[in-house]
Design goal:
Length: 590
């Protein structure tokens, strides 16, 4: 169970990081952003205290934000607010500290490197007992840099709630958070400059011309993409002005972009998200098309520039490049949902895929039968996904629509009671004649020849002997080779997952009972041939069981059904008894 809990811990950390990063982006001012940084480090990364020292125009660093999970009676780190340390003293401390990637760790026995003018505070935490325990005088720093490499500030964190020095996962999470914090601080400064420029546009004519020049420079030389979209007339939704950063980001010349609309550039799967994004204060993360045909992940932030007399004039959109963050998020999500040894989906991911395929509606309630008279009213598909209901006006407040009227949505299929829209029910095929070893557990009256979702449970026989005789390295190599073989014989679209130890599960959708038997035969035929590992022949056996998943069944019920059939075969062949299930031997990776 310990090996299976790690992906859940990582997913929980990833969700927390998403939340605190969203808080960073939601802050409307530099002060609010700095406060969101320290609060995010405490609540999202497991530290008791955090502080941000911001670089001033003269180069020195001032403590600009502090947060502590529980304020100390004698003031705690809040006494540091407003204190200033010289740039030279900070840089010397960063040079002496240990390099943990982009982080800097200064152990307590190197406290001599902290100059007297650097604001410091030592907590009253417990003294360390073991080598990796956190010492009250330890210092962990996360320098934050702009896109141009200039130091923006330093995030200091203290007292991990685990009581230990941060491990690799926490360090990586802190590095990712500090990167997003540096982007948020830079964007907060940019937004402040843009807001000041926009405010000057509302003044008298002479001040307006001066403001226009200031706005032009802020727009043209902004490090992130910027675009102005028309809100009136035949050109509604068209990009009337773009900066060089946006042209470079999308690989398109300025003249070509000015003939486009965001609805022309957005990925088809992200079109509805774009149309749901509010013009005033709207924010969306989506993909825009590049000239070479690829797509670029960006974050759009909208502001309406209004004239006091005439109302909204145009839409100002800030286009931020988030490709690296999205790639990193996908990598973290993949590591949390896949087995580290074989690269296969792990048990958590297998359950997630089953959950996406199954719904609570039992086969007896498949469409075609009227729902009960007392069933609660289900909202239409249109009401659930933002489409206007029949007879309602399609008000689009995003500013991205084409000038020839609102966008027509394709007709939506009706949503069935208790099941999500577009869902195809999984039905357990009819039972095979008695005496057939590969029998399923029927749920409802599916007709003969029905195709369903098969769950094939594979347990390796003799794997413990391989570990005991040749060692765990050979065992690892056997598991990797078995994973490779299984993936070669399944159908396209089937899922091969490693549950734990020497257990593998195959999900095969839209398959009949005879096909499932043939697939089981291919799996067995792939596993049984000997493997050549370290110049020796290694062979394992396999016990297979086929279960069937149907809507209305729980995930535990589905997996238990397949597991029981696997043990039926094991007993039939005189294999391991049921009591041996607790003796699975290979838990090194999972």
């Amino acid at each position: 169970m310990e090996a299976e809990s790690e992906p859940y811990v990582r997913l929980a950390t990833l969700r927390t990081l998403h939340r605190v990063v969203a808080d960073l982006n939601a802050a409307r001012s530099l002060a609010g952003t700095l406060q969101a940084v320290v609060e995010g480090a405490v609540h999202g990364l497991g530290f008791d205290a955090a502080a941000v020292s911001l670089v001033r125009p003269d180069g020195d660093l001032v403590v600009a934000a502090v947060w502590e999970i529980e304020e100390s009676a004698f003031g705690g780190p809040t006494v540091l607010l407003g204190q200033v340390g010289s740039r030279e003293s900070w840089e010397r401390m960063l040079q002496v500290a240990d390099h943990w990637g982009t982080l800097r760790f200064l152990p307590h026995d190197r406290g001599w490197a902290i100059a007297t003018d650097v604001p410091t505070w030592t907590g009253d935490g417990p003294m360390p007992v073991y080598g990796n325990d956190w010492h009250p005088a330890d210092v962990l720093l996360a320098p934050m840099y702009s896109a141009g490499g200039d130091l923006l500030g330093i995030l200091s964190v203290d007292r991990p709630r685990s009581g230990k020095r941060p491990g690799a996962w926490t360090r990586e999470a802190l590095e990712m958070f500090s990167l997003q914090a540096s982007i948020a601080i830079g964007n907060a400064r940019l937004r402040a400059e843009m807001q000041r420029a926009l405010a000057r546009l509302e003044k008298e004519q002479q001040a307006l011309r001066a403001s226009e020049e200031s706005f032009r420079q802020a727009f043209e030389y902004a490090p992130s993409g910027m675009a102005i979209t028309e809100l009136h007339g035949d050109a509604t939704g068209q990009l009337s002005r773009v900066n060089d950063a946006l042209c470079r980001l999308l690989g398109r010349p300025r003249a070509a972009l000015r003939q486009q609309r965001f609805v022309d550039l957005v990925h088809p799967d992200d079109l509805e998200l774009l149309l749901r994004t509010s013009a005033e204060g709207g924010r969306a993360e989506l993909r825009l098309g590049r000239r070479d045909g690829s797509y670029q992940w960006v974050c759009l932030r909208n502001s309406v520039v209004a004239d006091a007399a005439e109302g909204p004039s145009f839409l100002l959109t800030h286009v931020e490049d988030i490709e690296d963050r999205k790639r990193h998020e996908l990598q973290l999500a993949h590591r949390a949902s896949h087995d580290a040894l074989t690269g296969l989906p792990n048990g958590a991911e297998l359950r997630a895929r089953l959950a996406r395929r199954l719904c609570p509606v039992a086969p007896a309630a498949i469409p075609g039968q009227a729902p009960p008279a007392d069933a609660p009213h289900q909202p239409s598909h249109a009401a659930q996904d933002g489409r206007p209901a029949a007879g309602e006006p399609a008000a689009l407040a995003h500013g991205y629509a084409a000038p020839d009227g609102p966008l027509d949505y394709p007709p939506a299929p009706p949503a069935h009671h208790g099941a999500p829209a577009h869902h195809v029910h999984a039905v357990v095929p009819a039972e095979q004649p008695p005496g057939d070893l590969w029998h399923g557990h029927r749920r409802g009256g599916a007709p003969a020849g029905e195709r369903g979702l098969a769950v094939l449970y594979c347990d390796l026989d003799g794997f413990k002997l391989v570990n005991d005789r040749h060692g765990h390295n050979t065992g690892d190599a056997v598991l990797i080779e078995i994973a490779r073989r299984l993936q070669q014989v399944v159908r396209e679209g089937d899922t091969v997952a490693r549950m734990s130890g020497d257990e593998f599960v195959v999900l095969a959708d839209n398959i009949g009972r005879e096909e499932a038997k043939e697939l089981a035969g291919r799996l067995r035929g792939a596993i049984l041939p000997p493997m050549r590992i370290d110049n020796r022949a290694v062979r394992v056996g396999v016990s297979l069981g086929i279960g069937w998943a149907g809507c209305g069944m729980s995930i535990d019920e589905v997996l238990h059904s397949a597991d029981e059939r696997m043990y039926d075969e094991k007993r039939t062949r005189g294999g391991a008894a049921r009591g041996s299930r607790g003796e699975r031997s290979h838990r090194r990776a999972g």
